[in-house]
Amino acid sequence: MNLDYHLLDVFTNQPFGGNQLAVFADPPLDLPTSTMQLIAKELNLSEVTFVFPPADHQNDFRVRIFTPARELPMAGHPTVGTAFLLAHLGLIGEMAKSRSLTFEEGIGPIRVTVESDEDGMPAGVLMRQPIPQFLDIYEDREAIARMLSLRPDDLHPNAPPQVLSNGLPFLYVAVESLDAIRRLSLRLDLWQQLLRGKPGENVFVSTTQTENPGSTAHSRMFAPALGIAEDPATGSASGPLGVYLLKYGLVDSGEIVSEQGIEMGRPSFINIKVDRQGDKFTEVTVGGTCVYMGQGRLIVR
Predict the structure, then answer these.
(1) CB under 8 Å to 246, separation ≥6 — which residues?
(2) Which of 29, 52, 240, 253 is 20 to 30 A away from residue 138, measured at CA?
(3) How many angstroms separate the CA atoms of 246 and 131, rounded?
(4) Residue 94 reports pLDDT greater than 70
(5) pTM of the predicted model, to two decimals?
(6) Are strands 268-277 and 280-288 parallel, antiparallel or unpaired?
(7) What is the reported pLDDT for 119?
(8) What integer pLDDT is reported at residue 202 of this predicted model?
(9) 297: β partners
């Protein structure tokens, strides 16, 4: 069985930046879940997607998303990258200035919009995300700091470590400085004691000090349980990041740019937009650009 895939860099406009993604745009309809999981483990990227016809024909495509360790109900950079790839291949029909699609994912329908340039080629993708829920607060700041190889005073005093979820939960930890986020090192022994098997086992750390003048936040994400030591760009976590930063007064505007992956040598830039009415958050979108890098073939016997 020959399985063709496409390789993209997501949340970047430069090759070899952003987060890598492999997309199998036309896999066999009967491809077993176990084989998809083995393929994701073999390619060893943060995520791999497989595109199928939708079960509900009101939607456009069914997208299944795998990390090296498990299938995900939803994820950001795979959703954005898959939409970009389908437009790049001409599989979403005639492109106008923008084209909206609905993906079937594990949590339900996900709306994406592909924007095109003057030549009708895909230039960027916006993903509408579910409004995140605020879940557990971790009161033991000292334990969180130790887990991150930091001091308790490195953590921001006005924002508690808290779990937010829009379908995939993350523990959000705000630190005060770039110096702290650069010194950060996740201690797996303490992570296993504190977070393993809990909703906040994916750890997202951010500061509002940035390296690039156009950025609002500098971020890092660690997900050992998903087989991801560190992720260069995490779209699913970036929407809740914007909500978290606004709720605790760390930013003034709902238009946010999160820079990520810089410590990994894969700089990524994720555009976040959060709308709210008073204290109620009403819409969250995440978007960015992608670079098509090439294609390959797996031979599965």
Answers:
(1) 254, 274, 276, 281
(2) 253
(3) 13
(4) no
(5) 0.94
(6) antiparallel
(7) 78
(8) 96
(9) 4
In this predicted model, what pLDDT tens digit does every residue of 133-182 receive, in sequence order? 999 999 999 999 999 999 999 999 999 999 999 999 999 999 999 999 99
Q: Do the bridges between strand 19-24 and strand 47-52 make them parallel or antiparallel, or are there none, so unpaired? A: parallel
List pLDDT tens digits, range 275-299: 999 889 999 999 999 999 999 999 9
CA 45 from centre of chain: 13
- Nearest C-alpha neighbor of 52 from the set 40, 43, 60, 61: 61
CA-derived radius of gyration, the chain:
19
CB atoms within 10 A of CB 32: 9
pLDDT in tens, 225-242: 999 999 999 999 999 999
User: What is the rounded distance in angstroms from the CA atom of residue 18 to the CA atom of residue 222?
Assistant: 16
Structure tokens belonging to residue 24? 């199998």
Q: What is the pLDDT of residue 95?
A: 61
Alpha helices in the chain (DSSP H): 33-43, 76-88, 141-147, 178-183, 188-194, 235-247
172-189 residues labelled b (16+ CB within 10 A) or e (exposed): bbbbbeeebbeebebeee
Q: Are 132 and 138 in contact (CB under 8 A)?
A: no
Q: 46, 51, 42: which is closest to 66 by C-alpha?
A: 46
Environment class of 259 (CB within 10 Å of its CB; exposed 0-12, middle 13-18, buried 19+): buried
* CB neighbours of residue 163 within 10 Å: 23
Whether 259 is a known active-site residue: answer no
